[in-house]
Amino acid sequence: MLRNFSLRFRGQGACVVENVDLDVAAGEILCIVGESGCGKSVTAMALMGLLPSDTARIPDGSMTFDGRTFDLTTEGIPSDMRGSDMAMIFQEPMTSLNPAFRIGDQIAESVERHKGCSRADARARALEMLRRVGLPSPEQRLDQYPHQLSGGQRQRVMIAMALANDPRLLIADEPTTALDVTIQAQILELIRDLQRDTGMGTIMITHDLGVVAEVADTVAVMYGGQIVETGPVAEVFENPQHPYTIGLMASVPRLTGPRARLTTIPGTVPTTDAMAEGCRFRTRCAFAAPLCATRPAPTRLTGGHAVACHFAPLEQHLAVAG
Amino acid sequence: MKPILEAQNVTKHFPTGGGLFQKKGLVKAVDGVSLSITPGETFAIVGESGCGKSTLARLLMRLIDATTGDVVFDGKQVTTARGKALSDLRRDVQFIFQDPFSSLNPRMSVGRLVGEPLEVHAPDLSKSERQAKVSALLAQVGLRPEHADRYPHEFSGGQRQRIGIARALASGPRLIIGDEPVSALDVSVQAQVVNLLGDLGRDLGLTLILIAHDLAVIRHMSDRVAVMYLGKIVEQGTTDDLFERPRHPYTRALLDAIPDPDDRGSASRARIEGEMPSPLNPPPGCAFHTRCPHATDLCRTKVPMPQTTPDGHMTACHHWQDLGLTPRQTTASSRSPATQARLELYRKATEGAKIIPVASKTPDREELT
Lengths: 322, 369
Prior knowledge:
The structure holds 2 protein chains of 2 kinds.
Chain A: E1 2-9, E2 17-22, E3 29-33, H1 40-47, E4 56-65, E5 68-71, E6 86-89, H2 93-96, H3 103-115, H4 119-132, H5 138-141, H6 151-163, E7 169-173, H7 181-198, E8 201-206, H8 209-215, E9 218-223, E10 226-232, H9 233-238, H10 243-251, E11 299-300, E12 306-307, H11 314-317, E13 318-320
Parallel strand pairs in A: 3-8, 3-9, 6-7, 7-8
Antiparallel strand pairs in A: 1-2, 1-4, 4-5, 9-10, 10-12, 11-12
Helix pairs in contact in A: 3-4, 3-6, 4-6, 6-7
Chain B: E1 5-16, E2 25-37, E3 42-46, H1 53-60, E4 68-73, E5 76-77, H2 83-92, E6 93-96, H3 110-121, H4 127-140, H5 157-170, E7 175-179, H6 187-204, E8 207-212, H7 215-221, E9 224-229, E10 232-238, H8 239-244, H9 249-257, H10 297-301, E11 307-308, E12 314-315, H11 337-350, E13 355-357
Parallel strand pairs in B: 3-8, 3-9, 6-7, 7-8
Antiparallel strand pairs in B: 1-2, 1-4, 4-5, 9-10, 10-12, 11-12
């Protein structure tokens, strides 16, 4: 769907996002996973056309949506598609809902605008959506303000709003990061159920490998604006290939199994301008070699699994000395 | 062993409202908590937001005053300490905050930030001795001595948390209370700080009290765990026991709610419905009964008293004996030998082993175009 996408902000020497390809099928959840600053959120924002055009430059990239191809360097996604065919939910439901308007009006507004229906129909749709996302006593909620809801309820409202126009593609940017675990479990289940019912494609952005394991069909691991590994979630989790993916998985404390010392990734993520040429992970990679100064082409493995590392599979190319 | 810190029936109530538009209310943030911490152990307090865990941490070292109850540190009263006794307490008990961005003064250099506790608690040190001590502290948390001349904004989140830890260590404390010390950090950096805290605790013989919401982090770091819900401890036990055999439905629900990277698509797990009630208006009886799948009339009327199970586990549930909570499953890894060899190679490489290329014929590789 997304091809060769790059993004650069004014005043920065290097691209924040470099040659990213993403594919989401209808009825499928793609998770983009990575640490802060890896470019996962800006990619999503750019897809929705939410970045300011005066500072964000897109030197390369095109997107195919439902058979229509858009050249992202010159034109964005048409605004009539935004909010109807493509919808987005954000991490912080408090800052993305307008505190001065009633919930029902906020949902109805987008329905009225995109469907061109009457006020009353839009309101009926809002009520139906609130019921569908499992908000308790939806009739009363229509006339409440965002501050009267808890964090989990606000996220349900955001989901209701995003899905009110039956989007084909939902982009969810860390939708459960601000929530407690018991509420997170409820919201993830809700997204998965709704997604199954509507058959829409979903891109979920997260830093939590547990969330990926729980909801994703396919996963793309990002580091420093590049996709380092991608594939079906079972394949990537059982058979991680890229040193960054391996390091990320080893860093996560587990709920079961032996409590051993955590294996880490040394160092921290450099700033975009300080990113290394070639493979951007090489400054933190235990296997880095001179070869890594040239960018590795993605290597295709079995089962739709691809990895961008010169030495993949590691155990066939490298060994401990002695 | 004699406990290093003991809390008895500590409560903290915050009055709310009483203004023009609001009814007066009382938030029972911490409601009758008793704890006993053994020297050298790492004790974790876990719960969701609003359960009172941060308030409890602040009560334990008297950053705020308790409404009722006693806290005793090393045989001395914390709740009534004044003057010299209080400043001794501040030396012996230190705090690490969650947010490494707002807890360090941006106008102080790292050297001054870390040296400041020394000025207060070790005033006899000469300037050069203090500088040497600051360098040693920075080295201890994995920073370089020349970092002393830089300012907090020049550091990443993980490095700032290291500065916060160095500052907490400066006065030579015996007990460190960490309020979500790693939750603001990315996983790879979080793992570094988790390992650092573990090493320091062992090497310096520190007692640690950790407040966190992430059960996996807690499992990795602590010896004993207490689970809080609406201002009360609902379950307490050793880490291994509590994670394998939770004896309170809330603990079980918390554990089940966490998405596990090793357990994909676990859609069939039991979920608890609803949200935590407001502490302004807690439900009668057991506070968890509104969300508990096992709740009975007894739970709706009578507050359950903490009970000790035969294996020394504490649970505040009327029905813990009849719950029949099966031990949690441990998922077996289905990774292939090749993958396991790769993970082992990665671990050795990060630990500093020398890596050499092996003659390879690049089998079954196909470059994408």
